[in-house]
Amino acid sequence: MEYLEAKEKFISTWGSLGTLWGINKAMAQIQALLFISTKPLSTEQIMEELKISRGNTSMNVRQLIDWGIVTKELIPGERREYFSTEKDVQELARIIAKERSRREIRPVIKTLEEVSSIKDDGTAATKEFIQQTKALHDLADTADSMLGKLVNQKQNWLTKSILKMFK
Amino acid sequence: MEYLEAKEKFISTWGSLGTLWGINKAMAQIQALLFISTKPLSTEQIMEELKISRGNTSMNVRQLIDWGIVTKELIPGERREYFSTEKDVQELARIIAKERSRREIRPVIKTLEEVSSIKDDGTAATKEFIQQTKALHDLADTADSMLGKLVNQKQNWLTKSILKMFK
DNA sequence: ACTAAATTTCAATAATTTTTGAAAGTTTAA
DNA sequence: TTAAACTTTCAAAAATTATTGAAATTTAGT
To answer: Lower CB density within 10 Å: C or N end of chain A?
Structure first.
């Protein structure tokens, strides 16, 4: 496989993977493009490479910046803005895990806490409801705090964790 | 909050969460409904509770069965089929993690392996591409095998893992 | 084998999400 | 202050995804 083919395949795979971590295709593809680029890219260059419109590029780059994954690079003597993404995969994983927790997991945990706290009126349906939503709450809470712990280790957390975990 | 309100809130929250674990709204809602039900439900009952069509119910129940999350219950003397879901949250988490790995993560790892194996032609772009996709491949591979380990412990894996991990 | 009950399929439709492109807004430098 | 360069916004259009409902198929009892 040649570089160009591999590049296309990577960008497209990463793009369709977007849904897995909760972002849209264009957003994931822009990130992928920046991730393998040797230097920051301008809006123009991103549009050109991915064949997407200016508006689309602008909106999705902004979202990536909101996520903390992409940063503006000011190049001296250049009017236009250039963008680059976090290049360290561990750090990237940390940012993504943290943001997903904040945006999606924690709100759900809050809801589970609420609904599992209804008063037990003695009916079988209510008992089952409370029991099951509590169990779910506990699981989600534990999983999220585990993620939080992993995510707050600055260095090499995944590997370290595995070592600890499986002797 | 009363039972009925809590139930609705739970089903709707769980439904919109579907995207997080890669299934659609109706599918997640059916699973949620079964999860808090004291007994298996028929297609008819699911349609009624969730206000969705017969076809929709049929297709999504089938998918849940494919995932291994829902099972047909044959009730003696009854013609129609009844369905129930795995009630143990740990087991549920195991099944979901396993399926997601198989369906989504492993294919991506395979692609990453392929694209990171192109031959180094000496250009900076190719060097960067190989380095970055390799790093991503390593991370994904490690994360997936970690998930696999967790998932193959039958009992109480999350809690145990956390204990081991954080002393 | 027949029939009625139940389930599945799938083309048409609806709902949702993404993308476009052009107008409006902003910034910089002369 | 002006104007060109660049960015953002957002209503409309396109693309994608989910849902319906009725016909076709399957199943189980007689």
So the answer is: C
